[in-house]
Description:
Strand order of the largest sheet: 2-3-1-4-8
Largest sheet: 5 strands, parallel
Bound molecules: BIS(adenosine)-5'-pentaphosphate, magnesium ion
Helix content: 40-55%
Number of helices: 9
Amino acid sequence: MKLVLLGAPGAGKGTQAKILSNRLSLPTISTGDLLRAAVKNGTPVGLKVKAVIDSGGLVPDDLVLSIIRDRLKEPDCKNGYILDGMPRTLKQAEALEKAGIEIDTALSIEISDDEIGKRMTGRRTCASCGATYHIVSAPPHKPGICDSCGGALTIRKDDEPETVKRRLKVFHEETEPLKAYYLSLGQLITVNNQPTIEETTMAIFEALGIKNDKAQVG
Ligand code: AP5
Ligand code: MG
């Protein structure tokens, strides 16, 4: 399966990508995670994109395309992949197609802007491994500590309310038109966000025709 996850900032793309990755044994490639890692490691790419990410804008198309092309050449991608946060503009989608990068399905998680506001104030992200939690819907076992690696949980700089507003605006203007693009290719599936992560996973599994095996969810 070659899957693209679409959805507003905070829709749950990263959360569901992790669950789908485990269930389908496919790698998730998140441009947001790759860019944040570059910022953290102070690489030339990281230095170039930090201010753009912090302000809630989009980094240049050419830069993310080159990152994704390199990542998809790695052997773990040969049986499929889940793209989280890419493509993000029509130009990126067309460039993927031009580069021969195949997509079977674009899954859009639908959620209102109001709901996003609540999500973002409760999200916590591990400073070491990038794992995501929510203080209400997906809390860690010990407050402030990552279950996976013991790292400190922090608030992403771009989760500040004003920056979230800008990210939502950018999403509606630049990324939402991708739904019409994938619809025209017969590849779009939409799933409504559900009140819990588990219920959203079930709705996604049903939409993708994945066997509903509770033991492997979460
Ligand atoms: P990126 O990291 O991709 O951010 P995003 O798209 O804004 O999405 P988020 O990661 O904020 O949200 P998510 O949908 O993954 O939600 P999550 O699962 O965490 O990109 C960051 C930046 O990098 C961009 O702004 C841009 O600058 C740059 N960038 C990245 N890709 C780019 C590209 N291709 N081109 C140009 N620039 C690019 O869930 C959110 C919270 O809700 C969590 O706390 C979670 O626990 C909770 N939650 C999830 N689902 C549920 C549920 N159903 N019920 C209750 N709680 C839930
Ligand atoms: Mg994410």
